[in-house]
Amino acid sequence: MDCIFCKIIAGEIPSQKVYEDETVYAFKDINPMAPVHVLIVPKQHIASVNEVTAENSAVIAHIYEVASQLAKELGVAEDGYRIVTNCGKNAGQTVFHLHFHLLGGTPLKIEMC
Ligand code: AMP
Ligand code: ZN
């Protein structure tokens, strides 16, 4: 499958890994929008939120457990951070492997759209 995040998870493309377990991989965004900008992804290829089902949704809860832990480790838990998932064209999704942006380390813009 020609998916850049699947290749990163497989180690075929380098990444700055910050966390890995059996089902989740997290790495620094190559084009950071904030001092802390980490992408948290399921190892299973799920293209977008549109493909989340009862069969694969357990990993989403686990991703939020990982996000909570990483926010503490990265030092942004106390001051706050944002978790963003873009879905589809209108949201500007560019990589079609489900991912959660963890953004923090500075006050973030309040605008949601
Ligand atoms: P989105 O626009 O929500 O699909 O986000 C995709 C994100 O993936 C962007 O923030 C990119 O900077 C990031 N990205 C793309 N390629 C890489 C890569 N090889 N390593 C790390 N981050 C990447
Ligand atoms: Zn993939």
Short description:
This protein has 113 residues and is α+β, with helices and mostly antiparallel strands.
Give the cofactors and ligands: adenosine monophosphate, zinc ion
Q: Name the average pLDDT.
A: 98
- Structure summary, number of beta strands: 5
As a whole number of angstroms, the C-alpha radius of gyration is 14 Å
Low-confidence parts lasting 5 or more residues at pLDDT below 50?
none
Distance between the termini: 32 Å
How large is the count of helical segments?
2
The best one-word shape is: globular
| Sheet of most strands | 5 strands, antiparallel
- Strand coverage percent: 15-25%
Helix/strand/pairing class, anyone? alpha+beta
- Sketch the topology as an H/E string, one letter per element: HEEEHEE
Amount of helix = 10-25%
Strand line-up of the largest beta sheet: 1-2-3-5-4
Describe the structure.
- With 113 residues, the protein is α+β, with helices and mostly antiparallel strands.
- It is 19% helix and 22% strand.
- The chain has two helices and five strands, in the order H-E-E-E-H-E-E.
- A five-stranded antiparallel sheet has the order 1-2-3-5-4, with helices on one face.
- A hairpin with a 3-residue loop joins strand 1 (17-20) and strand 2 (24-28).
- The longest helix has 16 residues, at 58-73.
- The termini are far apart.
- The model has no long low-confidence stretch (mean pLDDT 98).
- Residues 4, 13, 15, 29-31, 39, 86, 92-95 line the site of adenosine monophosphate (AMP).
